[in-house]
Structure formats: structure tokens, C-alpha cells
Amino acid sequence: MLIDFLQYPFLRYTFLTGILIGLIAPLLGTFIVVRRLSLIADALSHVTLAGIAFGLMAEKKFGLMLSPIYSGMAFSVAGSVLIEKLRTVYKAYQEIAIPIILSAGVGLSVIFISIADGFNNDLFNYLFGSVSAVSQNDFTSILIISIIVVSIIILFYKELFSLSFDEEQSIISGLHAKWIHLLFIVLTALVIAASIRIVGVLLVSALMTLPVAASMRLAKGFKQMIMYSIIFGELSVILGIVSGYYLDIPPGGTIVMIAIIILLVAIGVKKLQSK
């Protein structure tokens, strides 16, 4: 079944991009879930949608050759910075920053989509993912983002681990928590924007949380949880892309449903082990 993905260049780019996304999305998702910030992925995905809609609108209405992927990344990074700023404004209610940015993303998306005269096939692909939409430039961009993400996670693993489990103690010990957290949330924004070609804007947050939720039922430590999350993420993406291609449906839906099946199996295995 993988012969087509190895034979045709556009499918090969899709397959390789999916492998990269299956690595970096659960990798960052592990830290997101542990820090109880799962809704950040939803908020940034909606801001990314606003950026994509802006790019499509600029091209359709004003003839500007603005890549929706890069405009989506720009909006996503801007949204991540604004979330961090709002967290400092509402220090006692930091979680309110997430629905504020999510609401802004939805509102801007509706406006830009309306100005661009509604939905078209390109926007549909961005919403739910597409097997044939990944170009060589997209793959190169995601490869660069993947290298940056993995490198920073390795370099700042101790700091991120400390912030995830005891933020107050980390700050007291002199860790630059503000800058580490800003760096982390910007990385999250880039990963979300990079993943939309395969998974789709509306489903990308699931890839950052479902594999982690499954690994939490089986792992015996944090590093093991990261490893299981990546394995489950890769299984979901690879099987989802292949099945989506042969069933002729957007891969985002199949990726998420396979991730759900893996989660249910993990829950079942945990219950059997506890008996």
C-alpha cells in the first residue's frame, strides 16, 4: 500500500511531512498536556485559520501572492505572543487569555472568509488536511521547523521539565521562566501552523493531545511518556495518511480517528493490567 507514496513525488512529500509532524506534534504536546495548557493548541489553530483566510483573501481580492501557510504561521506566532502578554495582564486568571485569543481567531476567520467570498477547495484542504497539497517548499519549511523544535527541546529539556512540574520553584531557583515559556509557546504556534497541511486546522490540536493521553495510561515516567506519545503519533499519522488516500477522504479525520482507537486500546490495556 506504500508503493504509491514512494513512487509519486507529491505523495512522497506528504508521507515524509507526516512523519515529521508525527514526531514534533506529540513531542510538544507532552509538555502542553502536563502543564494543563491543552486548549492553547485549539486557540492557536483558530488564529492560524485566520492567517490562512487572510492569505487567501489577499490573493483573491488584491492579487497579492501571499502564501497562506506563511501568513498562517505569522498569525499563529503573533497569537502565541499575545497569549503570553495577556497571561501577565490577568495574573490571577491566566487561563482567560486562551479563550480571548481563540475568540479573536474565530472572529477574524469569519471576516476574512466572508470578504474572500466564502469557502473554496483550498480553504477546505486547510481545514481538514489534504494528501495532495504538500509541496516541496512545504516539506522544506516543516523540516526546518522540526529541526528547530527538536534542537530546542534537547537544549532546554531540564528547564521545560522543571517548569512543567513545579513552575513556582523554578522561578525561585532563578530560571528565566518568562522567556522559556515564550519560546515554548512560539514553538507550539509554529508546529500547529506546520501541521495544517496534513491534519487540518480544525483537527491539529487532537494530534498534540490524543497520543499523549494514550501514553499517560501506559508510561511509567515522563521520558517514557514522550517516547510512547511519539510512537502513537507516528502510527496515527502514517496509518491516517495511507487510509485517507485510499479511501479518498481528507487525512485529518482518519488520523484523529486512529488516534482515538489507540487511546481506547491504551485505556483497555490499563484496565486489564489493573485487574
UniProtKB/TrEMBL annotation:
GO terms for biological process: response to zinc ion; transmembrane transport. Gene3D superfamilies: ABC transporter involved in vitamin B12 uptake, BtuC. Signal peptide: none annotated. Belongs to the ABC-3 integral membrane protein family. The chain crosses the membrane at residues 12-34, 39-58, 64-84, 96-119, 139-158, 179-196, 202-219, 226-246, 252-269. Coiled coil: none annotated. It is found in: Cell membrane; Membrane. GO terms for cellular component: ATP-binding cassette (ABC) transporter complex. This is ABC transporter permease. It comes from Oceanobacillus iheyensis (strain DSM 14371 / CIP 107618 / JCM 11309 / KCTC 3954 / HTE831).
